[in-house]
Amino acid sequence: MLIVGELINSTRPRIRPLLEARRASAIVELARRQIAAGANLVDVNCAALMDDEEECLAWAIETIQGALDVQISIDSPNPAALRRGLQVHRGRALLNSVTLERARWTGLLPLIQEFHCGVIALCMDDQGVPATPDRRLALAGRLVGGLTQANVSEDDIYVDPLVLPVATDTRSAVEVLRAVDLIRQHFPQVHVLCGLSNVSFGLPRRAQVNRVFLVMCMAHGVDAFILDPLHGRLMADLITARMLLGQDESCRGYLSAVRAGRIDDLRNG
Ligand code: THG
């Protein structure tokens, strides 16, 4: 299971000013807390800063890695910003993300070969995100085929079917789960990653929606997530679901989470 902490994102109103003002200690602290809560790496997205994106992304990566021994998921739609990020990153980064959009694919493939990074591959092309599970599978096939041809090993590929808000289309969560089933059947060696918080955009009590969707995704074989690791109940559900899916040898992870006070037992009355 791979957990990517999503909180250092310039689209978040509380984070954007910290990035713009280069508030190093606040950004390092947010990275540190996500890792302490169970994230394996932290996502950094500066795309909302427009002309300042590239500079800020490089600054954030250097600042975080200067203080902590963590890998970064470098999150940008912009190949130039991703290149800059990969150049300053120490060790193996996770490139977030490549798509089949023509400009992005041709711009990123040389980078992926040069830097030997892990790659998140979104099921999206110049026509956008396909509605049906079959069409998502077809895009996944072209992504996995193209990346393996470029010598990326399947273990370094994280296919992201792209989770869309259930508030705008009530079928969108179930269509993602069906796409995950198909990707799992056809490409058992690649990882499947979901951005959890996308599903609850536009709804109240978002954490409730995210938590239930997390467990559904895990039961369908999703093995990597971009999520908010500071949400204690979400992480408690993740630890519990791993155990129930046979991924927690001797229940060790669950039992140590209980001892650490990370699992509570809610009951009214
Ligand atoms: N797949 C991949 N990468 C991704 C996503 C994905 N990166 C970005 C995103 N989705 C995951 N990260 C976030 C970050 C913030 C929010 C959701 C997903 C979010 N922000 C609130 C908003 O914009 O309204 C504000 C929350 C706050 O400020 O507290 O919900 O799917 N590969």
Largest sheet: 8 strands, parallel, barrel
Number of strands: 8
Bound molecules: (6S)-5,6,7,8-tetrahydrofolate
Helix content: 40-55%
The number of distinct helices, counting runs of at least 4 residues, comes to 10
Structural class per helix/strand content? alpha/beta
What amount of the residues lies in strands?
A: 5-15%
Radius of gyration (CA) equals 18 Å
Describe this structure in words.
The chain is of the alpha/beta class and 269 residues long. It has helices at 16-20, 24-36, 53-67, 79-88, 102-115, 133-149, 172-186, 206-219, 232-244, 252-259, and strands spanning 2-9, 41-45, 72-75, 94-98, 118-122, 157-160, 191-195, 224-227. The radius of gyration is 18 Å and the shape is globular. The longest helix has 17 residues, at 133-149. It has ten helices and eight strands. The structure holds (6S)-5,6,7,8-tetrahydrofolate.
Structural descriptors:
269 residues; 8 strands; 10 helices; 8-stranded parallel β-barrel; binds (6S)-5,6,7,8-tetrahydrofolate
Please outline what is shown here.
Helix content is 46%, strand content 15%.
